Amino acid sequence: EYTQDNAYLAADGVARMGAFSVPFFGAVFSVLCAIDPEEASMAGLYYEEFEVGMEFQHALTRTITEMDNVMFCAMTHNPQPLHLDEEFASQTEFGTRIVNSLFTLGLLIGVTVGDTTLGTTVANLGMNDVRFKNPVLHGDTMHAISKVTEMRESKSRPDTGLVVFEHIGLNQRDEEIAYCLRTALMKKKPA
Q: How far apart are CA 71 and CA 146, in angstroms?
């Protein structure tokens, strides 16, 4: 079951594109659906639409579950008992299992895509200054803030530019849980 948040209706009354909220294993995901590629537009911004200092308070949040952590560890072949073994983890300074930090990083960047780079990025070129200030536990809810810190036109690709994003992940108590600088190669507006 889903709820339709908004939709583009063509003259014939048929939904060609829309944003939907879809519940999935206890989480609610926002999904952009395009039926007719000629009618579709992307939510991401083009290089020229960004400005240094621009800040995004991302509305998309995500509660991190035990299943997220266990499945991510399984998919990446990471057997670290700090993430998987409650008995082992109970004897650590955290007192319980903590979420795999690479899942946290991926989620941090993922929740920012819809507002910044959806459909308008060519590639991520790098992630620098990655840090995890506080542990993430099962049941923590992440929200994110992004800021454009640098921009420059590509020297080798005139139809693109580089944008550096500062991403900050916060938990439900507004404690910083993840930070990174991400350099993205962004498309320029079509001529």
A: 27
Compare 126 and 1 and report the one with higher pLDDT. Answer: 126
Confidence of residue 30 (pLDDT cuts 50, 70, 90): low
Helical H runs in 91-174? 101-116
DSSP state of 45: P
Does the reported pTM lie above 0.85?
no
Distance, in Å, from the CA atom of 127 to the CA atom of 141, rounded to the nearest integer, reads 23
Query: Strand, helix or coil at 47?
Result: helix
Please give the share of the chain, as a percent, with pLDDT higher than 90.
Answer: 76
Torsion over CA of 132, 61, 68 and 21, rounded to 10 degrees? -160
Count CA atoms closer than 13 A to 185's CA, side-chain side: 12
Q: Is the pLDDT of residue 36 over 60?
A: no
Mean pLDDT (the chain) is 86
Q: At what angle do helices 101-116 and 66-75 cross, to 10 degrees?
A: 100
Cα dihedral angle (121, 125, 131, 135), rounded to 10 degrees? 50
**DSSP tag of 65:** -
Vertex 170: Cα angle to 166 and 174 (nearest 5)? 125
